[in-house]
Model the fold of this input.
Amino acid sequence: MTKVKEIQAAIQSLSPDDFTYLRKWMMELDWEQWNQEIEADSNLGKLDFLIDEALIEKAQNKLQEF
Done:
C-alpha cells in the first residue's frame, strides 16, 4: 500500500470532529503555501505586469470601481 493510500484510509477512519479539524488545517496550510508563492513571485517581479496594466488603465480613465 502506498503512503497516500495509507493516509486516505486513515482519513476515512477519522471521527467527524477530527476530520473537520484536519480539513481546516489543510485549508489553512494550502492558503499559507499559496501566500508564500504569491509573495515570492511578487518579490521576483513576476507580477509587475499587473501594476503596469493598472497604471495604463488609470491613465486612460478605464478603471472601474466595484
Q: What stands out?
A: Helices lie at 3-12, 16-43, 48-59.
